[in-house]
Write a structure and sequence with these properties.
Length: 208
Amino acid sequence: MGTPEIRRATADDLDDLFSICLLTGASGEDATEFYDDPRLPGNIYAAPYIVLRLGLGFVAVDSEGVVGYVVGTPFTRAFEKECEEDWWPALRVVNPDPGPDFDRNDWNARLRSLIHRPVRTPGELLSEFPAHLHINLLPRAQGQGVGKELIGMMLGSFHVAGVRGAHLGVSTANTRAIGFYRRIGFTTIAETDDTLLLGVQWTGEMEE
């Protein structure tokens, strides 16, 4: 299959991003069985970054197609506002609100709740880590340095945008991903019962 090529993501990649987001949506494992709409995870964690003005993304492509992606934004607060104006309204029409007291074991309800009540990143976190990102790789792309290269491309774009810190969220159950992020310089900045927020900062020129 050769070494995957990294390039900028476009709208033509959306179907692949929806698929990869689903196939890695259970702490890195296939989440297909948990969702009645296979596009639900991608509509939250992938697609808006490709469609909306303030998002950006990169994909890794091998001889069989797209094997992974990173999406994000250097301006989290402004991106949250853009989602509220231009992304969530249409999704709310086709995704019923489960209400605030939904069953936390219902994966569909959990994500539909996020569509109706998106998480607003705390301002104190954004003062040091104003950018954020999401990354997912299919198993055949893991362990080859692809994830590190994708994140490097994204952090480089954040740097060009004048941003000096980025964060991401990861399930506490995804120990492999947590280990990977820590190896490339991310540290824990906040923690809940089931999620770690990890951040990285840089000054001056980005390292190659």
